[in-house]
From TrEMBL:
UniProt keyword Hydrolase, yes or no: yes
Swiss-Prot/TrEMBL keywords: Glycosidase, Hydrolase
Organism: Bradyrhizobium jicamae
Keyword Protein biosynthesis: no
Domain Glycoside hydrolase family: 19-256
Protein name as it appears in the record: Cellulase family glycosylhydrolase
PANTHER family to which the protein is assigned, alphabetical: ALPHA-L-IDURONIDASE, BETA-XYLOSIDASE-LIKE PROTEIN-RELATED
SUPFAM superfamilies on file: (Trans)glycosidases
Amino acid sequence: MLAILLLGSSARSYPLQKGMNAGDLLFMTPQQLRTRFADMKSIGVKWLRVEFDWSRIQPDGQETYILEQHDRIVSLAQEFHISVLGLIYFCPAWANGGHKPPAYPPADPESFARFASVLTARYSSAGVRHWEIWNEPNLGSSWEPRPSPAAYVALLRAAYTAIKQADSGATVVSGGLAQPYNTSTTMQAGDFLDAIYRNGAKEFLDAVGNHPYGNWEKMDGPNGLRATMSKYNDQDKEIWVTEYGAPTDGKGTVVVSEPAQAALLKDAFDRSSRQPRLGPVFWYNYKDWCEKGRPDPDCYYGLLRFDDSRKLSYLQYMEVH
């Protein structure tokens, strides 16, 4: 009965833009990639968030780019008519002042901008015209040693300018925000967004990125991100949910049952169909990274288990339209 309820359809007012995170694509063989793309296409994936990790692409200096796997992924996305959101993030040691990579930001935002410009010029003709700048910059674990709204805006400004110079029609999305409490090394999403607007971010983003894991109210509620955007007269821009999901194994309070994961997925896409100015919703993640039994819940966000067997959320993703 639960599966029947989950798979039922509901009235929709806005086009559904079904996205997917799949970081494991970067480590697949060409045949594995083709098989994955065919499967993603079969369940209705329209958008794919592809990681362009600067620390991996230029680990030793700015003269060499390791992009062969990205070339394969972008080519297949074009072949299968799946749009790409490119996530540009992290930094190699040679560009971050000699700190341990990857989460220390660049010492000079212009070096990051040059990298973003190269990516834009390389992939815009293949249809990659949407770029997200950094991942969860309101976490110290992603922006070491602690979040800095002013420094993030400097990076965003430099990247935005470089991307627009290379492709004037490109869309730039601010880094998807995590949902922590305020601590010495983290900032609440709303506080961080307000701070980057105070530092001039409005002119350097086309959409706001967010990761509302379990916190949709903090995005669209009376004190949510949309309200912050309205405060700065920027409410007409879209919010892109560049990650959303829940793990079905491991230890911790975030772990849910497989039926509950499917229900969360359906709720997310139902919300996206009802809300104006909401961009694509990117489910996190396509497949579990680990065999059953590991304590780390990050292993188990997938629609598929590690052995490729399907969770109920896989069927739910296929059914939402």
